[in-house]
Amino acid sequence: MQAIETAVELPAGARALGEYSRNYALRPDGKVMAVYVMPKPVKARDSDYGCEVMLEDLASRPCTEAEEAEIAEREDAAADLYGQANQSRWFDNYGDLPMIVDGGCDLIVIIFDPQSQQIESTHCNGEA
User: For residue 38, which of 94, 84, 102, 78 has the smallest C-alpha distance?
Assistant: First the structure.
């Protein structure tokens, strides 16, 4: 992890290295796959943060306490998956690395060859 973080040059459009959660795993081919992802912001859960459920007639109603608890649980799980800014984590299975569809430079994929100690590729995830 340290070798990659020391050597990597982030692509144009990327944010500062310390803003990303940095996640690593070994692929079956022996190369390290790094996924740098912007942490998922957790919305403030206070009186300023409202919750409403859209009804079939396009009206809405306030969320119940159970619905608010379920939303909070999902937000916490997403935050755990994406990690925290300036955090480096190792995963035992590269399939468990955090991923998002599209995302541009909110997700950067890096391939590192431990044999040659070279970064083979660095790219932002792209956008639809």
Answer: 84
